[in-house]
Specification:
Helix content is 58%, strand content 7%. The chain is mostly helical. It has one domain. The chain has a two-stranded antiparallel ribbon. Strands 3-4 form a two-stranded antiparallel sheet. The chain is globular and about 45 Å long.
Length: 115
């Protein structure tokens, strides 16, 4: 998956997590429609497998690289994790919080900017 494909997959997953129909009636934890949910989970897992940099709490700019993604790409991934954690907080909220801490370094003047 190249950078362009990565960004397209990230945006598609963001859309799947954000606009998937949500059942809110009796279920306190919203769930996305199965077709959207399965696709969003598949792409999210692939992004995590190929791009995650766990020690830095960031994502790399391309598979196999040790350079973190810049702020724009990270913002797409952050939005994806926000949507995912709304639907499945038990699965994605921890990732969201760790990633938030990782990208927060982009705005912290006291540390070296990643990338």
């Amino acid at each position: 998956m190249n950078r362009k494909q990565f960004l397209h997959a990230s945006l598609a997953t963001l859309v799947a997590w954000r606009v998937a129909p949500v059942a809110r009636a009796a279920d306190p934890a919203p769930t996305a429609a199965p077709a959207y949910l399965a696709r969003a989970q598949e792409v999210t897992a692939a992004i995590h497998a190929k791009f995650r940099m766990p020690k830095q709490s960031l994502n790399r700019n391309k598979p196999g690289s040790e350079s973190p993604e810049m702020a724009w790409g990270s913002s797409v991934l952050f939005s994806m994790l926000v949507g995912a954690s709304r639907h499945q907080p038990q699965t994605y909220q921890r990732d969201l919080l760790k990633f938030h801490d990782g990208i927060n370094r982009y705005w912290d003047t006291g540390v070296k900017i990643p990338g």
